[in-house]
Amino acid sequence: MAVSEFLENLRWTSFLLIYQHDSDLVDLAPLIYDRRSSHYGGSQAAIKLRKLPNNNDNYEAFLRYVKNHLQQTNIVIHTNNISTLYTLLQEAKNLNMTEPPYSYIFTNTDLPLLEGFLSNVYGVFYSNITGLQLVKSNPIMKTTLALTLEAIWVAGMALRDLKEIKDDFQPVAILCDAKDSWIDGPIMNNAIRQLHGRNQLTGDIQFDERGERENIIYYGIGRINSQFVQEQTGFYYIQMIF
After folding, report:
1. Are 132 and 219 in contact (CB under 8 A)?
2. Which one of 12, 21, 54, 75 has the lowest number of neighbouring Cβ atoms within 10 Å?
3. Using alpha carbons only, what angle is made at residue 161 by residues 156 and 162, rounded to the nearest 5 degrees?
4. DSSP-based three-state secondary structure for 213
5. Is the torsion defined by CA of 36, 67, 91, 127 positive or negative?
6. Residue 147 is inside which H or E element, if any?
7. Taking Cα atoms as reference points, which of 233, 230, 231, 194 lies closest to residue 214?
8. Domains in the chain, start-ordered, CATH in brackets?
9. Residue 203 pLDDT > 60, yes or no?
């Protein structure tokens, strides 16, 4: 998980991890359990776990609990819902939790999409608000949309290349439940593995011999002077198999 490596670079020795759904714990497993690092001298970072209330009307009370009882100022928030991030930041601002010593990391890679809302409504945030950004296009778009468009591009380019080297290559309708097989399937897979696309929506696209995408780069971003700016780059791995 890219956020786990990002946290190691920050060298936090403790933090509060807030998540939205029980199913999120599967995605967060590397961040929760893989916290041993030379940065900590072989010791494990202290992590407190708390689940968000189901009703966003209770977010203010939840954040008061974080502020007054947990007293944790390093906070990681995991949610796939960009509206949830907006609401949490709004409530945190009202409780003066967007000033030092508070620091936030959001795992949602669509965090930059909130820029317009934050600038128009709230102005300057004095606490650290950081995250990771995968999409490289300008203007920015949702990560899921960018990855979907790239998947279509990969399939289309592979089919184009196959048509050039194999005239009798034909698509075939198959039923997966019936365990049908596609004779030209391995050829298609090989064509995908040989693709090299530079400067796509999420960066360069290429695959290893197992069909896993290589060297995906996330940008580390932070909100400085009322706008998100790139803080650092690094190679973080996510799995995309064809």
Report:
1. yes
2. 54
3. 95
4. strand
5. negative
6. helix 143-165
7. 194
8. 2-132+216-236 (3.40.50.2300), 143-213 (3.40.50.2300)
9. yes
